Amino acid sequence: MAFVKDMLRMWAHSWKRFISIAMITLLGVAVLTGIYAGCRDAFRSTDRFFDAQGLHDVQVLSTAGLSNGDIAALRKVNGVAKVQAERSQEVTFDLDGRKSATMQEIGTDGIDQPYLQEGRMPKKAGEIAVTRKFIRDSGKHIGSRLTVTPESASSDTSDTSDTNGADGTNETNGTDEAPSFPTKLTIVGVVLDPQNLSNPDGYSAMTSFRSTATTDYTFFAPSDGVTGTLCTSATLLVKGAAAESTFDESYENTVKQVTDRIDGTVKTDRQKARRQELLDAGNKKIVDARAEADKKFADAQSQIDANRQQFNQQVDQIVSMQAGAAAAGAATNGANAGAAAAAGATTPQLDETTRETMRETIIAASPELTQAKQQLDQAQSQLNEQKASTEQTLKTKENELKTSIPQVRWYVQDRQSLGGFSALKSDLDSIQSLGNAFPIVFLLVAVMMSLTAMARMVEEDRSLIGTYVGLGYGRLAVASRYLLFALLACLIGGGLGLIAGFLGIPAFLLVVLQGMYVMPGLRLEYDWLYGSLGIALFVVGVLAATIYACVQEMRQTPAALMRPKAPRAGSRILLERIRPVWNRIGFLGKVTARNISRFKSRLIMTVGGVAGCTALIVCGLAINDTVADLGIKQYRDIYQYDLMVVSDDSDASAMRTKVASDGRVTSSLDVRIESGDLTVAGSGDGDSGKAGSSGSESIQLVAVPEKHLSDLGEMVTLQPVSSGILGTSGVGKTGSLKLDDDGVIVAQSAASALGVKAGSKVRLTNGDGVQATAKVSAVNRNLIGSDVYVSETYYAKLFDSKDAKNTKNSKSSEDSEALTWNAMLAKLSGSDTSQTDYAESLEEDSSVMKAVSCAHMADSFKFDLMGAVVALIVALAGGLALVVLFTLANTNVSERVREMATLKVLGFFDREVHHYVNREMMILTVMGVILGLPLGRLVGGMLTMALNMPSLYFEVEVKPLSYVIAAVATMAFALLVQLFVNPVLDRIDPISSLKSVE
Question: N or C: which terminal CB in the chain sees fewer CB atoms within 10 Å?
């Protein structure tokens, strides 16, 4: 019992150490669990919402629409639980200028159901539900009316970001018709689209660089009033996918099995079948047109023949009359009147030649008959010409039918293709990667501080430990005094850390997340396993340090322990050998220098602890600086052009004419831009950037005309990059990189994520879904977006483009059948504001699909979630620095109580004692700061390397101000600690402190 009382008395006396260990554990557990818990809560709530609304696992789109046969084929695929045919239509309306929207039919099979936020769901024809973004932008409300106009290409395949469009969706097979929606609309509800959780009232600007929507808004309408049997897409649910978390790899594997089956057999067969349907429909139209034309020509020929027969009968009658009259006149001059009368009663028989001669004479003599004959001949001639022309047209249609109907392309996409889903997932993954890295530093600092504190605690009780051991207490029982002390401190600090980690930090993160995304049903949850393991991790680390400190002391004999520990022997230090400096240092300065060098463990712990805390602060600020400069570096440094304009292939010429006529362009480059994919298969054969690397990245494929390859460097800064040590990259000289016909240039953002380097082989997918294996000639510096540059000739070689072949030796790309240059990179005159306004005005033109101003992108690029997390990490790192300095300062004082008492006996005033002690701590703090600044830059580079996000590469940037802030903050914490330490120094009693230990 006395042993226990003494142990409790010892614990109470060491309350400062207890608080230090508890606080370090609290901060470490909070960091370890907090970021993880916040991301996990967001993942889980979003997954529940997706399951409740039936967000599709797979979406199938086609450039020619989907028929009932396509839907039936998808239902037969093994692993498909449900298939829903989708009908949609793109419309336009006037809302402060021309705006576009997608009229989306609300499915009846429970897939992609909008989430009702206000009002009711539409049920009747003409009723719609709109998103809150539309309500905010339009100022309309429930009950408002709206009139829309269908676009010419009414079938919507907007989910595929192919710049070629889906202009084949209006093709029908003779029985299928494109969807058509009512145009007089009434708003009855406000809903949340499960495919896009972006918060329109939050930080909308942060997603501008990742927006993939091709229309401004989405309107949801019931099936009532929708006509047309042709589907624009099909959405699928996969068996067993709902049981997995949509953000886990197990879910991706489950869905991938189904998409592979669709790609393997169904896709190819149905593409061919659908094209054959279109060919059959075209042939049927030609056959029907020929039959209808033949019928009309036959009717016209019958009419002409009847008129000609009537005309011939009239002429023949006149011929007969004239022949009879001539015969009668000849008989009058004969022998008797009876013969004449008999001759006059009978028409003479004329040979054919004579009759034809008389017909021509009669017709020539009569203007009316001449005109009638000409009209009949002209009608016959026109009919013959129409027959020949129609037949020629139909034959031409037959010959052109196969070439006029393009190959049907299917696009099989999973949830990753949804811009809102991929943006949320990448944001949370990046934050979670930070949450996995920072606790390591906290754990190392916790172990160091625990070792320092417990080693001093054990050393103070040397004589007591020797006494207990001498009295027969086992070493384990004696050590339990300190092990239980450390364990209790860890448990209490860990418990408080779990509260902060599963309540405080997640609540903060979720507030920030809800400013960017709408996540219904969001709630905080506790993870018993992860929380217990988090505490156990720090308990093990701290107990290991405590055991080490106990072992170091208790391996001595009780007699040795009961004797005072011999003072550490003094020795010459390096500074003493530098006489010109040493001789100019005052007495107290020399004492300080000797003390710093004499207590090497304290030197290592203090410098290491301060360096670790400073490095954490620098690391957080480095991430903040890196993210803050991304937009400026990309859109003002790498992209030299001011404007990118993209159009549909059919509007490319009109778009260029429009931009040229405005007179704002100083120089331009026509290119072709397609959305595709870059894939690296895990082969391990050295073809890829890293052995066994794998993955896929959405890219923007930019084809450059052969005659203008050299002009690309004027629009985009081409700088080769190479991988360096610990995630760093070396950047080559500007202009040293050239695009040629030997390979493609891949953006650094995509290359870094996939492990691609110069010389690697990758698989490219172009806008038509055609795949080809390409060689990477170089990796170009690029931070935002994943551009892949390819020459016109190499594009033709890769994708077997007949139109683009042999253009290298042509006079110009204009004179040959080259690729359609559907985009333009241009430099503009005027200020940034005028350039932004001009880009916005271009988007209102019907020939322009998208116009992007680099000035606007540079100014609007934000990453608020990362900024909030960085602020949290910096605050926690600052708290850790404060605890570390407090622990080290108190340990320093407790070690040197007799020394301080001696100084007081010698006549030192309290202020002089303060200065004597604090000067050593400040010097050690400065040394830790000096070491921590470059260490923070190194750790920041390693952490940003771990932030592999789609279409983003974090080029580490640390501004000088960040170094100053980190250094000043750490020094300020050191000064703050002095305010707590000085009263402790004042309370040292020289008499009691200098009593003999024995």
Answer: N
Cβ pair 561, 531 in contact under 8 A:
no
N-term to C-term CA, the chain: 25
Q: What's the CA gap between 409 and 767, in Å, rounded? A: 10
Residue 225 pLDDT > 60: yes
What is residue 810's predicted lDDT score, i.e. its pLDDT? 39
Instruction: Read off the pLDDT band of 294 (50, 70, 90).
Output: confident
pLDDT of residue 202: 60
Partner residues linked to 89 by β-bridges: 103, 155
**Alpha-carbon distances of 401 from 170, 174, 386, rounded to whole Å:** 16, 15, 22
pLDDT tens-digit series, residues 237-281: 999 999 998 888 899 899 989 988 888 778 888 888 888 888 888
DSSP SS3 for 852: strand
732 Cα distance to chain centroid: 27
Check if the beta carbon of residue 90 is closer than 8 Å to that of residue 215.
yes
Q: Three-class SS of residue 643?
A: strand
- Spatial separation of the C-alpha atoms in residues 443 and 537, rounded to whole Å: 8
Ramachandran class of 83: left when φ > 0, alpha when ψ lies in -120 to 50, beta otherwise? beta
d(CA 208, CA 852): 10
Question: Residues 6 or more apart from 786 whose CB is under 8 A from it?
Answer: 678, 697, 698, 699, 700, 747, 749, 750, 950, 951
Amino acid at 214: T
CB-based contacts of 481: which residues, under 8 Å, 6+ apart?
A: 7, 10
Is the pLDDT confidence value at 685 over 60? no
The percentage of the chain sitting over the pLDDT mark of 90, rounded to a whole number, equals: 14
The SS3 assignment for 460 reads: helix
Q: Which residues contact 157 (CB under 8 A, 6 or more apart)?
A: 61, 62, 63, 165, 166, 169, 232, 233, 411
Radius of gyration in angstroms for the set of CA atoms belonging to the chain, rounded to a whole number = 44
Q: What is the token pair recorded at 368?
A: 């009316």
Dihedral sign (CA 651, 655, 657, 661): positive
In degrees, rounded to 5, the angle at the alpha carbon of residue 428 between the alpha carbons of residues 510 and 869 is 60
* Side chain identity at residue 255, one-letter code: V
CA distances from 79 to 25, 557, 906 (A): 48, 72, 88
Which tops the pLDDT comparison, 551 or 357?
551
Determine the Cα–Cα distance for residues 376 and 810; give it in Å rounded to an integer. 54
Tokens 């049927």 identify what position? Answer: 284
Q: Give φ, ψ of 770 to 5 degrees.
A: -80, 135
Q: Compute CA distances 156 → 60, 217, 377, whole Å.
A: 13, 13, 53
Residues 868/512, Cβ–Cβ less than 8 Å:
yes
Per-residue pLDDT at 168 exceeds 60: no
Please give the Cα distance from 2 to 468 (Å, whole number). 11
Of the listed ranges 8-17, 166-175, 233-242, 391-400, the one predicted with least confidence: 166-175
User: How does DSSP classify residue 635?
Assistant: I
Alpha-helix residue ranges (DSSP H) falling in 770-896: 792-799, 832-843, 854-860, 864-895
Q: Between 80 and 138, where is the model more confident? A: 80
**Across residues 330-337, what is the average pLDDT?**
55
Q: What is the 3-state secondary structure (H, E, C) of 249-302?
A: HHHHHHHHHHHHHHHHHHHHHHHHHHHHHHHHHHHHHHHHHHHHHHHHHHHHHH
What is the rounded CA–CA span in Å between residue 688 and residue 678? 12
Q: How far apart are CA 686 and CA 688, in angstroms?
A: 5
CA-angle at 747, arms to 746 and 752, nearest 5°: 100
Strands 744-747 and 771-780: parallel
DSSP run (H or E) holding 59: strand 58-66
Give per-residue pLDDT as tens, 346-361.
Answer: 555 667 777 777 777 7
Better pLDDT: 544 or 565: 544
